[in-house]
Design brief:
Layout lengths: L2 H22 L12 H9 L1 H16 L7 H11 L6 H34 L4 H29 L1 H20 L4 H29 L5 H26 L6 H7 L2 H11 L6 H5 L1
Helix pairs in contact: 5-6, 5-8, 5-9, 5-10, 5-11, 6-7, 6-8, 7-8, 7-10, 7-11, 8-9, 9-10
GO molecular function, one term: myo-inositol:proton symporter activity
Subcellular location: Membrane
InterPro entries: MFS_dom, MFS_sugar_transport-like, MFS_trans_sf, Myo-inositol_Transporter, Sugar/inositol_transpt, Sugar_transporter_CS
């Protein structure tokens, strides 16, 4: 066989081998489908976590060690892509929004209580104005401090503090022997309103999944208006008592405050505050 024939035979053999190898390769996978709206929202919320995990994996690979946080990434992604969120999300939002309910109740109930207070304690116009405006002023000051308290203590601790202030203020108002004690109770309630109005929406937004965040945050506003409506009902129910009806009006706010405090003893801290 001549040299030219050997070369042709070799080329033919190589061509046959390459063709056989191409035939053995699996077909290319189909192009990925665009993510759904829910998956896109969940993935956008995981971008920061994925970047952190990638840096940890790179460091582990360069140092020759294993590990990383791939399992944590996958678990978090599965949780965000669940069809239905855990009931915990709704429980946390409901207990948090009790702060909004107390906001609405304590700012609305005083209008009916003043009708009885001005007769029983002989309040003039100045004292009536003080009892109403002192709560709003204290709430404004507490809201200014609420940001620093949220960053230092956390959202959960601030909501617990607001619950304690609501309870203490309700007890002072219900047992007040004079107008000075009433003013002190209204100031304490105002501090609770300021801290709660600053903290509750932040806690709900940081606990809720992305696709439910806006819906759950509006629960706080719904509870505020619900508290004002309930305050009007309580004012009408106890306005017929000849003496001391205002004590029930102002003191009943301790019940939702205690419920919120007990509930938050079992609820976790905001995940965003924990990773700061």
């Amino acid at each position: 066989m001549s040299r030219k024939a050997n070369v042709e035979y070799t080329l033919r053999s190589l061509s046959n081998l390459m063709g056989e190898k191409r035939r053995r390769q699996p077909p290319p996978p189909p192009p990925p489908q665009p993510p759904s709206r829910r998956e896109a929202l969940g993935e956008r919320s995981l971008i920061a976590a994925a970047e952190s995990c990638s840096s940890l994996n790179s460091q582990a690979s360069s140092s020759g060690g294993g590990g990383g946080c791939g399992d944590l990434e996958r678990a978090a992604r599965r949780q965000f892509q669940q069809d239905e969120p855990a009931p915990f999300v709704y429980v946390a939002a409901a207990f948090s929004a009790l702060g909004g309910f107390l906001f609405g109740y304590d700012t609305g109930v005083v209008s009916g209580a003043l009708l009885l207070l001005k007769k029983e304690l002989r309040l003039d116009a100045t004292w009536q104005e003080l009892l109403v405006s002192s709560t709003v002023g204290a709430a404004a000051l507490a809201a200014l401090l609420g940001g620093a308290l949220n960053g230092y203590w956390g959202r959960r601790a601030c909501i617990l503090l607001a619950s304690l202030l609501f309870t203490a203020g309700a007890v002072l108002l219900a047992a007040a022997p004079d107008k000075e004690t009433l003013l002190g109770g209204r100031l304490v309630v105002g501090l609770g309103i300021g801290i709660a109005s600053m903290t509750v929406p932040v806690y709900i937004a940081e606990v809720a999944p992305p696709h439910l965040r806006g819906r759950l945050v509006t629960i706080n506003t719904l509870f505020i208006t619900g508290g004002q409506f309930f305050a009007s009902v309580i004012d009408g129910a106890f306005s017929y008592l000849p003496k001391g009806g205002w004590r029930y009006m102002l003191g009943l706010s301790a019940i939702p405050a205690v419920i919120q405090f007990v509930g938050f003893l079992f609820l976790p801290e905001s995940p965003r505050w924990l990773i700061q």
